[in-house]
Amino acid sequence: MLLRILTIPVISTATLSLVCVVVLAGRHQADSGCVTTLDAQDALDVVGKRSSEQPMLRREPITPLVGKHDLPRSKVMLGKLLFNDVRLSGNNTLSCASCHNVSEGGDDGRPGSLGIDGQIGGLNAPTVLNSSLSIAQFWDGRAKDLYEQAPGPIHNPIEMGSNWDEVISKLNRDHDFVQEFRSVYPGGITADSIVDAIVAYEFALVTVDSPFDLYLKGDDDALSSDALDGYRLFKSAGCISCHQGQLVGGNMFQTFGVMKDFDDRFDASSELSNGRLNVTQRESDLHRFKIPSLRNVQLTAPYFHDGGTASLEEAIRIMAEFQLGESFSDKEIARIRAFLVSLTGQVEEDLR
Question: What domain of life is recorded for the organism (predicted)?
Fold first, then answer.
């Protein structure tokens, strides 16, 4: 049997592409007495059927989020237990979920998080939702991934105020929990296995099926006219230069105050305002922060590293002034807000 490749042009609404169709043609076989063929019309029918089943994505600088379905479920659910376990804190009052409420935007809604013994952190807690897709962790990017990030709050004396020896000792006193843990990690409870389980859970916290993602997948009715106009303005004004990709941000660092001085809005004297400078010690990284994702931004007020901006409308106004040198009208801000609201997706129900 011979294998021939035919290249057939296929027109779609999104693009003109070439689809390679395998056409099988064979000589008369003595044992079967038949010839296997797929003519050009059959090939086009196959392509047409596949195209209708899998509509092409709109070609935009923002791409849809895709859920993580290949993670071991037992590990993810163990991670959820640990994420919500107050025994990870020094005085058994705080869990990871205390500052990262998965049901309400993945953060805590405070300018600075409430830590152990009533202490208040100096930075606004970022959302945990979709965090596995970020270029780095923390506002200054000091942790390269979630594996590096997870131990930080546990050991921070202002946040959870504990250590691995203390945490593991407490967990090992719970016979039922130990048995459940060993069913996933036969080696038992260790610092590495605790982190691995928590990170598996965090990897699963992807917010899918936002109205904007449905629009990207071809649903013309997913967005309101205001949201679509807001997206167009978001692109034409230049917001898209920093907020694009799957996360609509989260994939680079940028100086806050490109067009207007940082200290016109923030406390430039605070070490927490140094941004990435604290990590790299490069003067060029002063006031340079990881660009936050705009996914679910409707749910993550207050805004910016200091948590000093209460409303999304005000955050849009500030970004226009400080980063673009623009002054949006109230109507333009309302439209951009409508677009940003359309980026709100859903976490799997049993992960909340």
Answer: Bacteria
